[in-house]
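Students often ask why we bother encoding 3D structure as a string. The short answer is that it lets us treat folding as translation between two languages. Here is a chain of 737 residues written in the first language.
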Amino acid sequence: MSKKVKKEVEPPPKDVLDPLLIESKTAATVVLMLSSPEEEVLAKACEALYKFASKGDENKVTLHGLGAVEHLYKLISHENPTIRRNAVMILGIMASNYNVKKLLRELDVTSSLISQLAPEEDIVIHEFATLCLSHMAVEYTTKVQIFEKGGLEPLIRLLGSPDPDVQKNSLECIYLLMQDFQSCAAVRALNVIPPLLEMLKSEYPVIQLLALKTLELISKDGETRKILGENKGLDCLLRILETNEFSDLHAEALAVLGNCLEDVHTLRLIQQTGGLTKLLSFVGDSTVPDIQRNAAKAIAKAASDPGNRKILSEEEVEKCLIKLLEIDNDGVKVAASQAISAMSEDVGSKRAFGVQGISQLVQLLSRDSEEVKEAAVTALANLTTASPNNASSVVEAGGFEPLVSTLSAQRDGAIANAATVLTNLAEHVPFRARIGSQGVMSALAEPLRSTNSQVQSKAALAVAVFGGDADARTEFRNAGGLGPLVELLCSKNKEVRRNACWAVMVCASDEQTAVELCRLGALEILEEINLSTARKNNFSEAALEKLLDNNLSQKYSQIGYLSSSNIITDGFYDCGRIKPGVKFLSLEELSMQELTDRRAIIFINTKPQEDLTVQDSQDSSSELTVLSPSISRGGNRERASSVVSPMEEKQELPGQQYSLTKTSTKEKGLRKGKEKKEEEKMKEDTQVILQVQDEIKVESSQWLPPPDFILLDYINAAFTTILPLTTTREQVVALAQ
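And here it is in the second language, the structure alphabet:
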């Protein structure tokens, strides 16, 4: 038997470090360990960092500052599944931080995360990879990246995962993807409806809620709604509404149904199965504002189609909407008003709302919420269009004052529709006068200055309707409305320009307003419009003609003739023909020009602006001389001072019958002697007149047109001579003589 030899222990290799146990409480040290080539070190470092990051947002910020994200980005593709899993877990929870998301987007981590969604990967990796993607999908650019890099398909596949966290994260990511870009067609092709309907049966409310929100987004597509109906999705939604345990899901279920009700065949199908009656009854009995609001929105969407309106009216949806107006919630009132607006396109519904709904809508105009005002006045605009009965209902409800007040609202839609309602009411003459007394023309001046073309158009149309009254035009002129109205003539919007021309045509019905419009440049703008075949319209031509008819001096200077209906009155003047493009000067501007050898300006004014009485102290009989301050401002002094009125002659020669016919020789002799005395007296009067004129020039700077005493005397003489004659022939002969 041989001797047993003791085996010698081999010494450890000289180039290998003995095992070293490191205990560190500093995150920076652990982050440095992420660069280690040893898998065991990497795994333990990731595990430690996961626990550290899970403690709060401050720790996530710390790791981001230490550069951990860059190291983790490299490790999510590591060959070791444990290291890969731990790295994905850290990024999943850190991605909730904005700066981390931004850095991940710059590193283009999307492709690496999508690759972790493969079926063979661990469920934990699925959970945190989808969590990271859902955090990043809030940003639009990341949504595009996920979609373009094929992330939608694996996300939809993971809806069938046995892990509820994977389901929830995947579903949330899909929901976010559906919000900002056109991926409905891709989702439809990937058959997402069946798994979404299956998730409505989940025991987790958050998953059910996300499923309904996703269905609401994708059901806006018509083809998707068909698929939803084919998979009995409508029955599933109605069952949710009928189940009290799912009350927290009712609002979202109604939102999905609202999209589905847009299709006539879908709505008819629900009606035939009794679902529509149940739906309206459910809405009427509910006390939850979100449910009521979504129900009203669903009705509004459905009412966009004429066929749907007929079906809804058959179910007496009007009663349901009127009841919703009574709910003390602004969101419900807005949605109900919008639904009423949509339903009012149906004649029967319009009639039904007029009985009770209009009074409630008028009351809403006094609410503080601008959104409520806009929705209510929009409904009133639709209800009063082509409906005299509803217009009367608005009047009976005291709608004048709140409607005029709404013209100064903050929302353009409210202003435009308030003007529309007032215009609808003004179609009835009795209402027009009553509205005018509320100061509507003053209130319309500000909307004309709006930059919104819809507001401009409706306001100009209202001015055209109410401007037929002389007092209304004066009010509008005093409120400064003519300026912005003239500016709208230059609008590029065809409807605005047309209504502005209409309003100008109506406002030009009196001379004072017509002159002011011309001063603001309306005449030149209308002439330019009428030269363009694309811009002119019937109202532009009529407005130009109306302006000239009430500004005869300018019409005569531009055209050279007046029509038989144009009656010359005081204030008319003829300054000669003006060339196209040359400014037409006012009488005051012409009076300021220096005298030239050009043709005289003919001016007609038989009515002095202001009579001044001057007592002649040198006349023992205290004779009064009638003067006009306007004589000193452009009148012919010599002519004015040498005028002797036939009426004065008649007063001085009582008992004599004044006539323009031949007189006897004796009478001529007496008159010659009389004229000499009158000549001397008139010289004295002239001196007094000149003295008063100089005083007026100093005391008053306001220009007044000079009166024409000679013409006044001619007219008086003609009346005195002709009126006593009994036959027309005698009157014509006397006038000719």
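Translate back mentally: The CA atoms of residues 362 and 399 lie 6 Å apart. Keep this in mind for the problem set.
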